[in-house]
Specification:
This protein is of the alpha/beta class and 311 residues long. The protein has 14 helices and seven strands. A seven-stranded parallel sheet has the order 1-2-3-4-5-6-7. Strand 4, helix 7 and strand 5 form a beta-alpha-beta unit. Helix 1 packs antiparallel against helix 11, helix 11 runs antiparallel to helix 12 and helix 13 packs antiparallel against helix 14. This is tRNA-dihydrouridine synthase.
């Protein structure tokens, strides 16, 4: 499964991952209140464009807005609603959403209950192990969430205070497996097929979710599931197609801005030896044709890195 990553797993990225074999892809986090009030990029994040099943992730801290947003999502094609209780970003937790909900299990359960009651489609939950090392409460919340009607749970094997530092604790995820009977998805630090096998073994989970390991290689989720990865030439075609899709999806000005981080990840993965000044020229250019010409030259001149992730 491809993890929901705000600012990363937009529709163009999800389309590539799905096309190359990802078992399930999830939208970027959508703020429930903003969706109901039609603010910001909420409706753009909701778009499906033929991908299925369409799994929509919602975030919020008030049961009313979560329920209303879930209804809107379901009415607009969502097959699954996922509740975000894992985002560690300060702008999210500062509003008592995301992983901050794990500090208040009663509020978290009220959101879960309201969302489940609002829609007929399955509702799932993504969270961390807890807020910090002194409050590892994922097993407790997971057990109560299942009783409230949640049909699948994803656990990122870190606390909120760890953000993305250190190593994810795959063994700790098993404590959730031990108290629920619904499907469990394990997430955190999965880069290779060996990692995927190990996290499944140690966590007892039913499936694996890949996040940062897919940056710069959106086909990698499917590759870990056993599908054929793209050849070097196909990778270049994916990069060019992804860039064009982002410009069409966001418009030229915004698309250029959104695309830069993806181009950087592609260069890091596929052309790590490219000179710094050439990277800078790619990022500075506002001419899409010039950007792609430079990217294709960089990819053509680079030998693919050999690593266990690529094996």
């Amino acid at each position: 499964m491809l993890a929901p990553m705000s600012g990363v797993t937009d529709l163009p990225f999800r389309e590539i991952s799905w096309r190359w074999g990802a078992g399930l892809v999830v939208t970027e986090m959508i703020a429930s209140r903003e969706l109901v009030l039609s603010r910001g990029e909420s409706w753009a994040r909701l778009k499906r464009a033929g991908l299925g099943p369409h799994m929509v992730q919602l975030a919020g801290r008030e049961p009313h807005w979560m329920a209303e947003a879930a209804r809107i999502a379901a009415d607009n094609g969502a097959d699954i609603i996922d509740i975000n209780m894992g985002c560690p970003a300060k702008k999210v937790t500062g509003g008592y959403s995301g992983s901050a909900l794990m500090r208040d299990p009663e509020l978290a359960l009220s959101l879960i209950e309201a969302t489940v009651k609002a829609v007929e489609v399955p509702v799932t939950l993504k969270m961390r192990l807890g807020w910090d090392e002194t409050s590892i409460n994922a097993p407790e919340i997971a057990c109560r969430a299942e009783a409230a009607g949640i049909q699948l749970i994803t656990i990122h094997g870190r606390t909120r205070m760890q953000f993305y530092e250190g190593r994810a604790d795959w063994d700790a995820i098993r404590r959730v497996r031990d108290v629920i009977s619904i499907p469990l998805i394990a997430n955190g630090d999965v880069q290779s097929a060996e990692d995927a096998a190990e996290i499944l073994l140690r966590s007892g989970a039913d499936a694996v979710m890949l996040g940062r390991g897919a940056q710069g290689r959106p086909w990698h989720v499917g590759a870990l599931a056993g599908y054929r990865p793209p050849s070097r030439g196909e990778q270049a075609e994916i990069v060019a197609g992804h860039y064009d899709a982002m410009l069409r999806f966001y418009g030229r000005k915004a698309g250029l801005r959104h695309a830069r981080k993806h181009l950087g990840w592609y260069l890091d993965r596929l052309a790590p030896a490219v000179a710094g000044d050439e990277k800078a020229a790619i990022f500075r250019s506002t001419d899409p044709q010039d950007v792609m010409r430079r990217m294709m030259q960089a990819l053509a001149a680079s030998t693919p890195p050999i690593s266990r992730e690529a094996a």
